[in-house]
Specification:
This protein has about 160 residues and is α+β, with helices and mostly antiparallel strands. About 45% of the residues lie in helices and about 15% in strands. A 5-stranded mixed β-sheet has the order 1-2-3-4-5, sandwiched between helices. Strand 4, helix 4 and strand 5 form a beta-alpha-beta unit.
């Protein structure tokens, strides 16, 4: 397993992981309405916009997207927002981390988290911390983050537009 920075040639593999991430959020942490909403956003246009944004982020910091490459394809990724976006939360932001279900429990997520934390430690941040958003219903993710030293810090609220 190779943990390495994302390259443009990884776009198709990253997109498949991103789709699985989104669909997993929809199906595992919400009811049918949430799954339907997440499925509906995964259009070709969304794919193009997402991959273009990844490209812009990687141009800003080539290590902000780290992939787990099994040799025959990508099996996971971690996406830390570039330092230029540190003022979003006044901290490093772990935007996404995902490992394919068949590779969970193998240490891949730990390796991706280590790479994400290493990058965050190198960023010039207003606050010396990493933040992320985790769905309250995602017990597996919450346990993973607790194991890596994350704790409750504030509370995110949202509303529809």
């Amino acid at each position: 397993m190779e943990i390495r920075p994302y390259e443009p040639a990884d776009a198709d593999g990253l997109w498949e992981l991103k789709r699985a991430f989104e669909l997993g959020l929809g199906s595992e942490t919400g009811g049918d309405d949430k799954l339907t909403a997440y499925e509906a956003k995964l259009t070709d246009e969304y794919r193009e916009r997402y991959l273009a944004w990844v490209g812009r982020c990687v141009e800003s910091d080539e290590r902000c997207v780290t992939v787990a490459d099994a040799g025959d394809g990508l099996v996971g990724y971690a996406f830390v927002l570039p330092e230029s976006m540190a003022f979003v939360w006044d901290a490093a932001v772990l935007n996404e981390i995902y490992v394919a279900p068949e590779r969970r429990g193998t240490g891949v997520a730990d390796d991706l988290m280590a790479a994400a934390l290493d990058l965050a430690r190198e960023q010039d941040l207003p606050l010396d911390r990493m933040v992320l958003d985790v769905d309250a219903a995602n017990e597996r993710a919450k346990a993973f983050y607790r194991r890596h030293g994350f704790g409750h810090w504030g509370e995110m609220v949202a509303r529809e537009l």
